[in-house]
Specification:
Elements (H helix, E strand, L loop, with lengths): L4 H11 L10 E3 L6 E6 L8 H6 L3 E2 L5 E6 L10 E8 L2 E2 L4 E8 L9 E8 L3 E6 L1 E2 L6 E7 L8 E12 L1
Parallel strand pairs: 2-6
Antiparallel strand pairs: 1-12, 2-12, 3-4, 4-5, 5-7, 7-11, 8-9, 8-12, 10-11
């Protein structure tokens, strides 16, 4: 009995997914109100406790400004968070690099497929950036933003962290 590869080729191609690829769809996994400000164009570096004094951030033992990421219902208390965000510094002169590090807690990191940060900058428009995952920790994502602006310009840029799960 002989088998022909030619006869099987259409079946193999159909099963292998060749042809039209569907775009991956995502749903927001965390609360859409998980936001904070980056203060751009200020004279001095604002970090740690100074960030907490401005509001929206907490500071723990390491002196880094952080805020919690809540579940998508937004109704659970802050102690039932799905992750957290560290921003350093939260304010600085034009041209400063701002590190944004997102940690998705262990129990949820299998649920999160990608992380992005949305930036609303008054007078400069809105942008969204995908964050790079850490190669050794699937729940750790990092992005460095450089604050841009004109000499003397000061503004409060709103950042929204978005955890996405594939649907």
């Amino acid at each position: 009995m002989k088998h022909s590869l030619k006869a099987c080729l259409p079946l193999i191609l159909a099963l292998s997914g060749c042809g039209d690829e569907e775009e991956t769809e995502y749903a927001l996994f965390n609360c859409e109100e998980d936001v904070a400000f980056i203060y751009v164009g200020v004279d001095d570096i604002i970090d740690g406790d100074a960030c907490a004094d401005k509001g929206g951030y907490d500071v723990d033992g390491d002196g880094i400004a952080r805020f919690k990421l809540r579940s998508s219902s937004c109704d659970l208390p802050d102690d039932v968070a799905v992750g957290e965000v560290a921003v350093s510094p939260c304010g600085a002169p034009i041209g400063t690099e701002h590190q944004i590090v997102v940690t998705v807690y262990d129990i949820y990191k299998q649920e999160v497929d990608k992380v992005s940060v949305s930036l609303e900058s008054p007078g400069r428009g809105d942008d969204e950036y995908d964050m790079a995952p850490d190669s050794a920790d699937e729940g750790l994502y990092k992005l460095t933003l450089v604050s841009v602006g004109s000499e003397g310009e000061q503004r409060d840029d709103l950042i929204q962290i978005k955890l996405w799960e594939e649907i």
